[in-house]
Amino acid sequence: MKERIKRNLGYIVASFSALMLLGIGVASANGLSAINEDTGEDSRNEAKLDIDNQVDVRNDNRTDIDSILDIAANTGDNEANDNEGDGDVESGDIDLAVEIANLVGFNRQDCSGDCPSGDGMGGCPGDCSNNNHGKDFCCPFGGDIAAGNFDTGEDSRNEAKVYIDNDVKIRNDNRTDIRNDISACLNTGDNEANHNDGDGTVSTGNINVDASVNNVVNNTSASSIPGACCPFGGDIDATNEDTGEDSVNESKVDIDNDIDIRNDNRTDIRNDLSIRANTGDNEANHNDGDGTVITGDISATIDFTNKVMN
Q1: Strands 222-224, 108-110: parallel, antiparallel or unpaired by DSSP?
Q2: Are 155 and 246 in contact (CB under 8 A)?
Q3: Strands 94-105 and 222-224: what pairing?
Q4: CB 47 within 8 A of CB 62
Q5: DSSP assignment string, 211-272
Q6: pLDDT of residue 168
Q7: Alpha-carbon distance 80 to 88, whole Å?
Q8: Which of 31, 1, 29, 258 is CA-nearest to residue 148?
Q9: Would the pLDDT of 16 be above 60?
């Protein structure tokens, strides 16, 4: 019996098979059992239950972020020339504030958390069904596991065996590429106050730049797959009881758990910042009065934060 379950987190392929040979092999919501009971004299009895559980989970996450800003601001390139009186130029200030925040978080699966209690199917946490049988594959057997020989006959040979192979493979592949490109050309200069009969005065504005870039990539957020890593929540018992004279009785429960988790995270972050700021290149020449040039200040505060958690 094989079923496939599609989930939003990626994909899960779960398979279950049970083989029962001779005797009594039972797989139910209350657990698993391979039992030989009330066997006859000189009889040969074998009860065998062979379980193969496979869970394959893969998460592929890819995020590409490009933040490209091309900014130009100009209050300069003014002229006050050839006036009969004074020629005055006063350019305005430029205040530039840029804030970029890139927050990327990936959810990955693992085998953390508590295993369900052994109270049948009701002990399985959560609901992982996209069809009528989905929950069975997240927690196939919430009950007990038993192999036993009871009230066996004289000179009989009795074998009760349960073989369980649990194979869980989890692959989390996260890829993040972030590019922040900020280019700014800011000017309050290139002003003229020339050839005036009076004074020539140029006063340019200030340029203030405040840029903040914050990149946070979190690959550590994890959620457990309900029951996939511990699909059997009950007790395990192998018993020979009230066996017959000269009988050979073997009861065995063999469980093989193989859990393979691989996390592959790659993050590439590129921050490019280019700022050209000018308050100069001003002229106050050939005036009959005074020639005065006052250039503005330039200030810049740049903050880059890159935080990657794997």
Answers
A1: parallel
A2: yes
A3: unpaired
A4: no
A5: EEEEEEEE---EEE-TTTS--B-S-EEEEEESPPTT-EEEEEEEEEEEEEEEEEEEEEEEEE
A6: 84
A7: 6
A8: 31
A9: no
Give SS3 for 246.
coil
Best CA proximity match to 182, nearest among 99, 95, 63, 75: 99
pLDDT tens per residue, range 32-55:
789 999 999 999 999 998 888 888
Give the integer Cα–Cα distance in Å for 203 and 206: 10
Q: What is the pLDDT of residue 205?
A: 95
Query: Rounded to whole angstroms, how far apart are CA atoms 106 and 224?
Result: 14
pLDDT of amino acid 66: 95
Q: Which of 208, 159, 158 lies closest to 184, judged by CA?
A: 208
176, containing H or E segment: strand 157-187
- Cβ proximity of 202 and 106 under 8 Å: no
Closest by CA position to 271, among listed 210, 217, 215, 208: 215
Pairing of strands 18-21, 44-74: antiparallel
Structural domain boundaries of the chain?
2-309
CB neighbour class for 15 (10 Å; exposed up to 12, middle 13-18, buried from 19): middle
